[in-house]
Each structure stands twice: as C-alpha cells, then as structure tokens.
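wait is this the right file?? whatever heres the structure
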C-alpha cells in the first residue's frame, strides 16, 4: 500500500508538471516611443517638413495631385518604394504601380493614401502600430518604422 501511495503521488506530480494548459503569453511590445523618436530624428536629419496625423502617421505631400481623392475603401493604383530610416529598400513597385483596394493594406497606407489626389506624390512615415506592430514579416523586423515614397496614379470605385 505504501508503494501504491508513493506511485500515486509521483504520478500526480508528473501530471501537474506536464499540463497541456496554454501558458499566458506576454502582451505585444509597444514600440510607440521608439518609433516616434526614430521618425522625428529622421525628419530632422533629412531637413524634412512633415505633418503628423492624430493616429501618429507622418506624411509629406510633395505634389497634392489634381484628380479624384480616394477614400479608405477605394481601389487605387500606386507606384511606391518602401524603405527603412537607414535607407534600405524592402519593397518597390515598377513605375506603372500596383492596383489594390485600400481596405486590404496596412492602416498607414489606408489613411496616408487618402491625403493625395490622383497625380499626387509624397512620403508616408509609418510607425509600427499602423503597419505590422510587434509582428515580423519577411524582410521587415518587428516594430519597424516603414517609409514609403508614393505616387497615386489612379483611383477607381
């Protein structure tokens, strides 16, 4: 009986140590402070004049454009170059651009492209909370500030 109780105790201990319960995960890292400093340092270093929206998106309008202005639900054609504040390019379209719905892209694009009219161009400086947040993507580390030089070629409904 003594061996049975000892075995039962060890079995109980083993089962409690190998529980299949999910362990709580840490909340996603907040990069807001680091991203803000990275963006403002980039703006100062490059002597740029940018506007900051209420969401934390910075944008520069080089050419506002004269055509139709998109909404966050519009289908657009945009030529772009995506890069980091160190200048390394992570993505780029050709001059004819890509066509997509703004509802299918990161929040920084969904908001930022609406500041331009057809024919407009400029730069979006997107903090990570308006991009991929604390998730990494191929070629884009978690918490990254993303910069995009954009030209809005066309807007369609």
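ok assuming it is, sequence goes like this
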């Amino acid at each position: 009986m003594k061996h049975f109780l000892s075995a039962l105790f060890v079995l109980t201990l083993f089962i409690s140590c190998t529980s299949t319960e999910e362990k709580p995960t840490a909340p996603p890292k907040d990069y807001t402070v680091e991203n803000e400093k990275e963006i403002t340092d980039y703006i100062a270093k490059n002597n740029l004049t940018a506007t900051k929206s209420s969401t934390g998106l910075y944008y520069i309008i080089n050419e506002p454009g004269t055509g139709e202005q998109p909404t966050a639900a519009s289908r657009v054609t945009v030529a772009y170059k995506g890069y980091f504040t160190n200048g390394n390019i992570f993505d780029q379209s050709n001059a004819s651009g890509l066509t997509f719905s703004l509802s299918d892209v990161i929040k920084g694009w969904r908001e930022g492209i609406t500041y331009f009219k057809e024919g407009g161009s400029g730069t979006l400086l997107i903090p990570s909370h308006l991009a991929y947040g604390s998730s990494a993507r191929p070629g884009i580390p978690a918490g990254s500030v993303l910069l995009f030089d954009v030209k809005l070629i066309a807007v369609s409904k």
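The mean pLDDT is 88. so i think its the right one actually
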